[in-house]
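To whoever is on call:

I kicked off a structure prediction for a single chain this morning and the downstream step that reads the tokens threw a length-mismatch warning. I double-checked the sequence; it's 120 residues and nothing unusual in it as far as I can see. Pasting both halves so you can look.
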Amino acid sequence: QVQLVESGGGLVQAGGSLRLSCAASGTILSINTMGWYRQTPGNQRELVATITKSGRTNYADNVKDRFTISRDNGRNTVDLQMNSLKTEDTGVYYCNVGGVRTDFRLYDSWGQGTQVTVSS
């Protein structure tokens, strides 16, 4: 089993910053892509940002230049630095990690979600 533990959500005023962190543990042989997704009120879960093992990043258009994703391959962690937050960034943010387990089976794991609320 691969477990993900997220932290860092909370309440912030518009224009402020928050940093989300996610730590992966368990029967991990390797980690490929790590990412953050979110579900905003009334919408389906959507991609926020992803990062490959080599560090290649991909961002949703509406967070480019405001959010930065990073990872520490030695600690199996992925962070999301969110700056210039807007009220429309409010939602539940989920960490996602995919890779290979120690039994050589693929996994695609999700965190429990962390609430981000941006007030006006």
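Update from on-call: the warning came from a stale cache, not from the record. Cleared it. Sanity check on the structure: The mean pLDDT is 96.
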